[in-house]
Amino acid sequence: MIRTKSHLIENIRCAADAFILRLDAPDVAFIASPGQFLMVQTHRKEAILRRPFCISDVEGGKVSLLIREVGEGTKHLRNIRRGETLDIIAPLGKGFSIPEKGSVLLVAGGIGIAPFIFLIRRLNEKGVNTTLVFGCKTKDQLYLASHLKRLCSVAVFATEDGSYGDEGTALDSAKKILSDGSSFDFVYTCGPRTMVQGVARLAREFGLVGEASLEERMACGIGVCLCCSTRLSDGSKIKLCSDGPVVSLSRLV
Fold it and tell me: Model pTM greater than 0.85?
């Protein structure tokens, strides 16, 4: 874990409600793993607490954050300019397991796609075959779809309104892929909690193991304040910032 001030290299609008911050953070990039996150100080006077964001990608000494604009804190970040600095603490939390070979299925919903870009890059380095299912309400929320097509072995998109790809949810498309006989060694998922739990049930039904990255409000990011305490379906209670955010799918059903 490092506290550092990182210069902003790029601030890119990638959708009507989302943007990418690319930071010059070589010390963080060197030790970060897919699934980990960082805490950002927004420099707003009224914002006492840092904000957590997953590490979306790492390339060279650069760290990227894919952020959906949902409130004053993210609006402030959307307006920072190239060359400005951000005070960050990173990397934090438990990341994804990375298999050495085989085929994996990744199921993302909405902004839940954010940690998968870095993950897919690492899986590609291992020679692992990646099938991505990415779903959202409408095509305008399919963040970085063109980039994901190039990055993955197979990319399947789903929209609830049928405006792009399969009509329905990511869970619907994932179930169809598995029902059609496709075989996978591991499953990853991130997105709305109901979707994540649905993927966990699907994995159990088809005898698959995997992991989920869970979303929760956080304050300290290091397991002290208990703000992100979460009870899992197996009855256990964890501090998501330090015991997660990645957990086994078997703990969600």
Answer: yes
